[in-house]
Amino acid sequence: MPSLHIFSRCVLVLGLFFSIVVGASAADVTLENVAAPSANTADEAISKEASLEKAAHFLDSAALTWQKDRKCFTCHTNFAFLYARPAISADNTAHQQVRAFAEELVQKRWEDQGPRWDAEVVAAAAALAFNDAATTGTLHAASRAALDRMWTVQKEDGGFSWLKCDWPPMESDDHYGVTLAAIAVGVAPDGYAATPAAQKGMEGMRRWLKANAPPTRHHQAMLLWANSYVPDLITAEEKAVSIQQLKALQKSDGGWALATLGDWKRGDDLEQDTEHSDGYGTGFVLYALRRADVSSSEEVIHNGVKWLKSNQRESGRWYTRSLFKDNHHFISHAGTAMAVMALKSCEETKVGQSK
After folding, report:
1. In the chain, how many H helices and how many E strands?
2. Is the pLDDT score of 12 beyond 90?
3. Has residue 22 got a pLDDT over 70?
4. Is the confidence at residue 355, as pLDDT, over 80?
5. Which of 99, 137, 142, 228 is the S-S candidate for 103 at Cβ 3.0 to 4.6 Å?
6. Displacement of CA 290 from its chain's centroid (Å)
7. pLDDT tens, 43-92?
8. Is the peptide bond before 196 cis (omega within 30 degrees of 0)?
9. How far apart are the C-alpha atoms of 134 and 101, rounded to whole Å?
10. Tell me: domain 4-23+48-344, CATH 3.40.50.2300, correct?
């Protein structure tokens, strides 16, 4: 657990941020009254003050709009919502409705129709287990069912057949799926990692990770996150190197650019933006560094938090340009979730697990 000194510094850094939130309470966003958030655009005005309330409203609106209109789950929107929303509050209608939809996915739709892809099984298991750890601290029956189902789709080499839609960083290679599965097992409450099925599955994943190095800095950060729950996934030396390499990518303004975390080619033949910091890059790296026990008193963390506080948009989102094509920029949804999780991780108790 971080020291009192670290906690005090963190409170000092985030005090204004959280004090803004306490003031007023926005109307509950529900499936019945949800209005789609405005388009994710780079020219949206910066908010005059940082607000978790605005972030919550954006996350609620984006997740419920996706659920209502598309009737499915995606890593960048409503799965990301299940990770991040409890960091603000889980006691609201939007969280309850998205959570219920995820439970229905596992307990009814999979039973009736089967999962759409193997990746959906892993992603649902991870989101539900993380959400359990951040809320009740007890493994829900739907979460356990999703986790157990992971082992039925695990390949003989220990990996998983992941979506390769050329939509990085989440849907472009198998490595992401393996680290996400490891996070699912490690974060799951009620000692799930000690079950025979989980132990056997983790043995396979360790073999796979040993044979397949992370292809990007992003996936090095995913390993740091997974290693915070399953401490033997990487060596102490590998952990130190990854931390240093991520720190080195910090921009002079205190943020990180998602496009610098990998060498991804775009689908529209334009150049990636490696110059400008963004919400996902900053939130994700900050969160990974905090999970890797980088102290909140370090200047790299302090400056990253300052960037997040200074770059929230009026809608409540943190904008991130798509790595694939300049159209919807849905990675901004995950970027907002990661920004919220990063800010929360500066408190004494980390999201999903006390340290």
Report:
1. 14, 0
2. no
3. no
4. no
5. 142
6. 13
7. 999 999 999 999 999 999 999 999 999 999 999 999 999 999 999 999 99
8. no
9. 18
10. no
User: SS3 helix, strand, coil % of the chain, rounded to 5?
Assistant: 55, 0, 40
Determine the Cα–Cα distance for residues 110 and 226; give it in Å rounded to an integer.
26
Kindly state the tokens that stand for 241. 């190197």
H helices within 154-228, ranges in order? 174-187, 196-211, 217-227
Q: Say which amino acid occupies 2.
A: P
162: left (phi > 0), else alpha (psi -120 to 50), else beta? beta
- Measure the CA–CA gap between 225 and 323, rounded to whole angstroms: 22
User: pLDDT grade, residue 347 (50/70/90)?
Assistant: confident
* 16 pLDDT higher than 90: no
- Residue 173 phi, psi (nearest 5): -160, 165
Global confidence as pTM: 0.91
The encoded tokens of residue 239 equal 């952990």
For 227-242, give one letter per residue: b (16+ CB within 10 A) or e.
Answer: bbbbeebbeeebbeeb
